Amino acid sequence: MVTVDEVRRQFRNPPPEARPMMRWWWFGPSIEPAELDRELHAMAAAGLGGVEVAFVYPMGPVTAPFGSPALLELVGQAARTAHSLGLRFDVTLGSGWSYGGGHIGPEHAARRLHWDRREIGGGAYDVRIVQAWPGDEFVAAYVGDGTSYAEVPVSDGAIHVPAGGQPREVLIATSRLTGQNVKRAAAGAEGPALDHYSAAAAAAHIRHVADPLVRAATPELLGSVFCDSLEVYDADWTPAIFEEFASRRGYELRPRLYELRSDTRLRTDFRRTLSELYEDNFVKVFQRWAAGHGVPFRIQSYGEPPATMSSYRFADLFEGEGWGWTGIPETRWASSAANIYGRSVVSAEVWTWVHSPSFRATPLDLQGEAHEHFLSGVNQLIGHGWPYSPSDGPGLGWIFYAAGALDDRNPWWPVAAELFGALHRFSWLLRQGTPVRPVKIYVPPSGELNLYRAARKVIPESVPRTIREAGLDFDLVDDDAIAVLDPAEVRLIVVPEDEWPTTARWLDAVRAAGGTIVSDPATLAETLPRAPIKVPPEVGVVHRRLADGEVYFVANTGTSVRTITLDRPMEQWSTRAAEPLTGQVVTLHPYEAAALFPTTTTQPLPAASTAVPVAGPWFVDFGNGSRPVDLPHRWEDELPAYSGSATYTTNLHLPSNTISSHEDRTRLLLDFGPGEPVAPGTESYLPPNSYRALITPPIGVAAEIWLNDIHCGAIWAPPFRVDITAATRPGVNTLRIVVHNTAANALSADRHLIDTAADVTAQFGRRFDLQHIEHAAGYVSSGLLAVPTVVRQA
Fold first, then answer.
1. How far is CA 205 from each of CA 276, 456, 589, rounded to the nearest angstrom?
2. Over pLDDT 70: what percentage of the chain?
């Protein structure tokens, strides 16, 4: 395990493996070799660490259908180029999601159990078995009085219902194809979602899809192969279920199948069997196959089929999705499994719905949501995503249907390297040592098909919030996890429902070892252990234990300045600090984060400062000549469709007595103000999972600052200030501020995207809808929106 000094030394410039990555959307596929190389070079220049290729629906004429030799050659080219640039190269083992396609026939497609119910009289009935839909398979029939049933004999293609008393009802169970096809499929990848409980279905997908992709990319060049979130809705059946249930549960399912409609314990046993089949016949199959090629298998293991939290353990790399550090997002499902099963790296799909629509996301939005993921246990960001777009495409080019479009078409891209550099440092930091999570939350078994959602239902929202707001952290644990978790290491566990027999025995061992069991959420706060750092509202903390000490990550997730008073001095590295501070007070501006290292030294707090407005005169240049301008200056008032950059200039008059000397260490800061908080719900069209930072910044949306042609820094997040000390000189100083906005203004005027969506829908069917594009220009403010001040600080 690393030491505090080793982590402190490397934090400024950490190794490259923790750099943020991007999901790279390949539309169509319609790909140009030269554009592949250009985009990979752009990613490397921005400080990204790699790509995850995802093949999705067409946005234009298809040049390389999915699975074709032409596409596989392009995959190989991209892998080789990425390797030459030092970029990690991952590939999704299929198109769209979930796995499936035209190679999946009815014998390998996802199925569900369908019930027909009919009230009948007392006579005997012979009912022909009819295949209502292609692929239907009769399972069993039962007759009864509504409380008890008996299986009905079947022969010669008919159900033979004997005569009996009244009233009666017949229940007929049929295995039906779910009818779900691959979502957002590329051309040539259309077809049914596969049966995740069938090893034969997994083998078919490997043979037709995964093997060719891996051979094309070359296994030695792959960072991992990937499976996206499980979204095989209503898939609760597989042909071998009766045999599998009997061998795994120790009793027969068939005579009691009808009880699935009402019996909680039977439903739970049934779902448990499906979970095990998913693990054995899907996760393990793909992991073993990938391991045979020397490639890790990465998966988002939650959703439907019923993946347990511990199902992750059969994969190599665990990934989550979703932000919300005081709750239980899917990222917590993944990070809990990673901690319990000894994986040091846990990734998350980030920015999936960030500040919709595409191109609305600002660097501040990306930073704020990334911090939420860090607080949920993530230490590898995989951005969603980078849309491939032709170099000669009209308008803005191609975008994915959901936010965000995170590529070099964004006007703010000149600050991307600094943004990704800050996130890289924190990602790396959060891989060091081991996480300290003194609280466990038990996830009870469930009869529901989506076990993650079932857990969210039974665990009150107050439980994770109480733990996190107390400055502590937690892991989820389930029945598989407790088998590897030493009861003596559990200080406190929350059990939200009645204990099951296996759980009860383990909890007895926890009590015997001195641990505390909390079953009433109302008493949780008073039973929590003391946190190492007491945090104010909206500030989250992650605690990592190193070989000889501790390190803490703290992040302000709100719109107010927050102050942490520590009980010992700590060295503080903030989001974009070039040098650390030391002391016992940490000030976090909105959406700011810091790494804290215990130390024995302190620095005095800054003395009182003075601020003088930069009165001007100011000039602005949009690339067509400089002209006078009054501040604040909002571009949309005169150029509503403009996306790009503008340069603001003025002269600063600095007397010699304001310039810092080596002895007095006076700093001069150019400060743009705090920005304006935005009321939650202002953009009412945004869904709850669409992240946005609730601040209108004083610079819309990012800026680079030069003084006397010396680059002083870039700003996009609070505190909106930059240190200009080293560039100052007595007398007249030339100040140049280059402001970059988003591409949202251009998107609002880009008719070609709407026409493109209509054209490809007419040709290929409806595979997507452009999300919220009609709101592209709403609540947008670009430009220099405040008069900056020069702050003199001792």
1. 20, 32, 50
2. 98
**Whether residues 121 and 143 fall in one domain:** yes
Check whether residue 313 and residue 215 sit in a common domain: yes
Whole-Å CA distances, 282 to 110, 288, 311, 319, 342: 13, 10, 11, 16, 21
Predicted pLDDT of residue 601: 76
Task: Residue 599: count other Cβ atoms within 10 Å of its Cβ.
Answer: 17
Are residues 556 and 623 located together in one domain of the fold? no
Which residue bears the tokens 């035209």?
102
Q: Given this model, what pLDDT does residue 660 score?
A: 58
Residue range 359-376: mean pLDDT, rounded:
98
588 lies in the same domain as 619: no
Instruction: Please give the distance of CA 607 from its chain centroid, rounded to a whole number.
Output: 41
CB within 8 Å of 192: residues ≥ 6 apart? 100, 101, 104, 109, 110, 177, 178, 179, 180, 181, 182
Residues 747 and 725 in one domain: yes
In this prediction, residue 662 carries a pLDDT of: 47
Kindly state whether residues 155 and 279 are assigned to the same domain. Answer: no
Backbone angles phi, psi at 400, to 5 degrees: -75, 155
Task: Say yes or no: 400 and 512 in one domain.
Answer: no
Q: Return the structure tokens found at 121.
A: 């009289």
- Yes or no: say if 598 and 580 are a contact pair by the CB < 8 Å rule: no
The pairing of beta strand 702-707 with beta strand 731-740:
antiparallel
Q: What is the mean predicted confidence (pLDDT) over 278-293? A: 98
Alpha-carbon distance 471 to 482, whole Å? 25
Q: Strands 21-27 and 380-387, how do they pair?
A: parallel
Pairing of strands 149-151, 137-144: antiparallel
* Cα first-last separation, the chain: 40
Q: What is the CATH number of the domain that holds 734?
A: 2.60.120.260
Q: Which of 556, 574, 598 is the last residue of a domain?
A: 598
Task: Read off the tokens for 229.
Answer: 């979130």
Three-class secondary structure of residue 780 per DSSP:
coil
664 and 574 part of one domain: no
Domain range for 621: 610-793
Structure tokens at 287: 């992991």
Mean model confidence pLDDT for the chain: 94
Name the band, by pLDDT with cuts 50, 70 and 90, for residue 166. Answer: confident
